[in-house]
Amino acid sequence: VFAPAFTYQYLQTLRNGSLGNFRDLITEITKNGAMLIYLNGYLNGRTAPDENYARELQELFTVGKGENSGYTEDDVREAARLLTGWKIDFIEFNVFFAPWDHDTGDKQFSSFYGNRVIRGGSTQAEAERELDELIDMILSTDECAKYLCRRLYQFFVYPFIDDWTENNIISDLAETLRNNNYEIKPVMYQLLGSQHFFDEINHGALV
User: Fold this and answer.
1) What's the burial of 111, exposed, middle or buried (CB within 10 Å: 0-12/13-18/19+)?
2) Phi, psi (5° rounding) for residue 188?
3) Which end of the chain has fewer CB atoms < 10 Å from its terminal CB, N or C?
């Protein structure tokens, strides 16, 4: 992002949070300077919401685009409204909240998210409360935990997931993730310590 200080902060965030709590990690990433630059978050304002990060938050980072992912274009737009107002100081290389550019209206989400309404606010504390509610809403879907576990499985074990794997491996990992409040380490212990991980059929499967 042509801002080494922000790049360093971004990499440190990933390193520090990779085996921690996913809720905390995605919250930090949302307000991270490098991400605000990369996906135009610092340009996202109340009069012209930018949907880039709001879309990727759902499409790439949390629930994906699978057949059981039911978020809508309206959900993208409402999330973009909710995320308005986070700006960058390119002199001091820090992130700040601009209340004058935050959409203070209520945000209405689809049935995929239980028709949730997140109440708007005008202060930084209220904007952070909105963000917390947004993340909690997304993580409360069954698909979020399954999507994250699929991504871990494809990276560490095998690139393709068949019905048997979905029903016998992914579902169990997702239950562990939810039961541990989205702590990543217990899932990694379960996956990398399983008999399935060491099965000969998975040897040499990753290029």
Assistant:
1) exposed
2) -65, -40
3) C
Please check whether residue 79 is in contact with residue 57, taking contact to mean a CB–CB distance below 8 angstroms.
Answer: yes
153 neighbors 161 (Cβ within 8 angstroms): yes
Place of tokens 């109340």: 46
- List 54's β-bridge partners, or say none: none
User: What is the rounded CA–CA span in Å between residue 160 and residue 153?
Assistant: 9
| pLDDT at residue 207, rounded to an integer | 81
Q: Please tell me the distance from the alpha carbon of residue 142 to that of residue 174, in angstroms, as a whole number.
A: 8
- How much is the pLDDT for 34? 97
pTM for the structure as a whole: 0.95
Tell me whether residue 42 is exposed, middle or buried, using C-beta atoms within 10 angstroms of its C-beta: 0 to 12, 13 to 18, 19 or more: buried
